[in-house]
């Protein structure tokens, strides 16, 4: 940009340009995309969880005149407003939403920054959450919760496996005897029937005949 006696004379393209010494002043403005890290902010989420969140913003100057005339230091201004916007947006979400819905948070921050910086001749192209730090107590609580969920799923799978076995009602004439069922189970186990092999092996380990059998066993 060219200033003459403090007044804007317009923009000049890159290259060799003649200016009047002591009268004209050239102010260089880069139009490339600039990467700006947003410092880690201590934030309290909507469900009163304390987290430290850092991010990174990408922006570029689209109007060189506005970026110089409308605001004194556009880079410092974007840095400050990005920090306050980060605290505002993350504080409106719960901890689970902050960890799982980062794309929506990134979009909300970028839209707010775009509205505030359009008068400065700046376009914010991208905002990404870079790091989310949780307190040690919160990490331990989440680890206990995950372990409890795994134990719950294991118990459910075990109960479903047991429910697949049904009791054998042996007839008085011995037509469906326990010995016949055990031999049939051995044949099915040798043939690769996983359900029969599981029930038959568990009965052998217990040292007794099983009281529950797969639904496809003979009756």
Question: Could you please describe the fold and organization of this structure?
Answer:
The protein is 46% helix and 23% strand. With 219 residues, the chain is of the alpha+beta class. The strands form three sheets. The chain has a three-stranded antiparallel sheet with strand order 2-1-3, with no helix packed on it. Helix 2 crosses helix 4 (102-117) and helix 6 (178-190) crosses helix 7. The longest helix is centred in the last third of the chain and has 28 residues, at 136-163. The chain is elongated, with a radius of gyration of 35 Å.
* Quaternary organization: single chain
H/E order of the elements? EEEEEHHHHEHEHHE
Structural class: alpha+beta
The biggest sheet amounts to: 3 strands, antiparallel
Task: Report the radius of gyration as a whole number of Å.
Answer: 35 Å
Distance between the ends: 94 Å
Mean pLDDT: 77
- Helix percent reads 40-55%
The number of helical segments is 7
Range of strand content: 15-25%
* E-strand count: 8
The shape is: elongated
Low-confidence stretches: 166-176, 203-211
Strand order of the largest sheet: 2-1-3
């Amino acid at each position: 940009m060219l200033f003459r006696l403090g007044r804007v004379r317009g923009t000049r393209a890159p290259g060799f340009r003649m200016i009047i010494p002591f009268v004209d002043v050239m102010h260089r403005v880069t139009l490339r995309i600039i990467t700006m890290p947003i410092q880690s902010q201590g934030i309290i989420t909507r469900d009163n969880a304390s987290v430290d969140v850092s991010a990174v913003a990408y922006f570029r100057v689209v109007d060189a005149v506005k970026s110089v005339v409308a605001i004194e230091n556009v880079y410092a201004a974007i840095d400050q407003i990005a920090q306050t916007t980060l605290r505002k947006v993350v504080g409106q979400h719960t901890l689970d939403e902050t960890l799982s819905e980062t794309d929506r948070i990134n979009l909300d921050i970028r839209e707010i920054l775009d509205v505030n910086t359009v008068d400065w001749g700046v376009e914010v192209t991208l905002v990404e959450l870079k790091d989310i730090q949780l307190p040690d107590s919160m990490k331990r609580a989440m680890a206990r919760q995950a372990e409890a969920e795994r134990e719950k799923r294991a118990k459910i799978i075990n109960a479903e496996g047991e429910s697949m076995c049904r009791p054998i009602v042996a007839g008085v004439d011995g037509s469906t005897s326990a010995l016949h069922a055990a031999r049939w189970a051995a044949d099915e186990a040798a043939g690769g029937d996983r359900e029969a092999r599981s029930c038959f092996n568990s009965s052998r380990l217990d040292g007794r005949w099983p009281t529950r059998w797969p639904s496809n066993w003979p009756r």
